[in-house]
Every structure is written in structure tokens, then in C-alpha cells.
Amino acid sequence: MECQSQKTKLAENMKRIGFLRVLNEENAVIPCLLSVAPVLDHVVVLWADMDDRSIDLVKEWEHHLCHACQCRVSFLHYPHHVVPPHSVDDLRSLPRENRIDTYLNFGMEFIRRLYEGQLFCVSKIDADQIYFTRELEAAFQMVSGPEDCVSIRGHNTLVHQQRLMIYGPRPVNGGGDSLICGMNNLPRFGIAAPYEVDITAHPQVTPYPDACWMHFMKTAKYKNVIREFHDDEVIPLSQKPALQECFLSRILPLLQEAKSPYAHLRLD
What we know:
By secondary structure, the chain is an alpha/beta fold. It has helices at 2-13, 29-36, 54-67, 100-114, 133-141, 241-257, and strands at residues 15-21, 42-47, 72-77, 120-126, 129-131, 149-155, 157-160, 163-167, 172-182, 189-192, 195-198, 206-215, 220-222, 225-227, 234-236.
């Protein structure tokens, strides 16, 4: 009982950090932040190349996120071009400063140094995913110590021809590469040919059982190929009534609050 009490106290004192990497997600990044800010103490926004207004929008919403949601926002710019995963045969052939693993480790090391000597945990936040706030909160509550590690997953939904659909070949994403980690068990990234991987040997990972987000993918990515979706691999959201209702009641209001064009996606 005393051990459990100590764990609860640790969890209450543990800062929750979101590690948000942004690349051209102006339609989703604000709803994403609105969905995670009630759960987090601090979001570190990392970016390098940018061709849209994603960062400008986050700066416009920073005051709201800080004061209404009590979530601090920090901006961290990486000063080199980053070659996207899945765009070349082997990312290891690139100059180190242009590799996705160097970019991600740059952000993770910033967080590690910023909170050195404090109790904290970190989760990567994807700017093209909008989270179910209650489920994300429940997953964070499972992290009660610096060695803990919890895996989370979500619905692999996508945007295709102005419709929100489900990616048939892989309807769920996350799991092994989406972790909430205590400060002594943080990810460190390396390369596995066309994409990045977490090379930390997490001794024990506890899965959170329920879906924590809906994805808003814009392209299909497989091995070293980035392409448009094919009509025969997408499923209308209307064919999954429970998920459609979840979108309408929990995700759509965030899109509307952010005035995102995604609020007008068709579901048929």
C-alpha cells in the first residue's frame, strides 16, 4: 500500500512533456494541440523545413494554449534541411545533419537538458493526429515512475479526395513506435534504411488498450515510397458507425474551434 502511495505521489509530481514535430500540417496542428494541451504541462514544438503556416498558427494560439489550457509552449528550430523518411532508399547514406534521426535526437536532447534533475515523462505528438483527450490522460496516468514506458496507438484514418477515410491495409497505427516514457527510459533514434527507429532498449513496455487518436494522413508511405492513396485501399468512415460517431462528437468540435478546413471533410 505504501509502495502504491509513493508511486501515486511520483506520478502527481511528474511533468508531462509533449514532443511535437511539425512539417506542413496547418490543417491539423491546432486541433492536435487543443486535444493534447489539457493533458500536458509543456509542448516542445520542433521544426526545420516549412512550406505552410503551421508554426505561425501555433504562435497565434500559444496564448490560448498557455492560459486556457495551462500548457506551456516552446519553439525549437532545427537549422538544417531534413530529408523526409520513406523518400530515399537508405537514409544512412545522407549527411548526418540532414537525417531524421539527428533531427529527432536534437529535440529529445533539448528536453532532456531542460528538465535535468526533475521528474518528467515524454510522449511524441504527431501534428497530423488529433487525440482523444480522455484516453491520452488515462495513458499518461499509467506512467508513475522514471523507468516506466507505455505504448499508445490510434486509428489510421486519412484524407483522400476531400473525404475522411480509413486506411484498409493498416487500420491501426502506433504501438511500438508511439511511447510515453519516463525520464530514465527516453527514446533515442537511429535509422533502419528508409525511416527512423527508436534504438533504446526499453526493458518493459505496457500497452494502453484503447485508441488514443485519429490520424489525418495525406499520403501513403511504405518502405522508400511516398504516394497518393489508391481507391481500393481506402474505406469510407461511414462504414464504421462507432468510429464515425467518435469523430463527430469528439474530433469535429476541435476542428471547428480551430477553423480547420478538415471540419468540412465528407464522411461518405
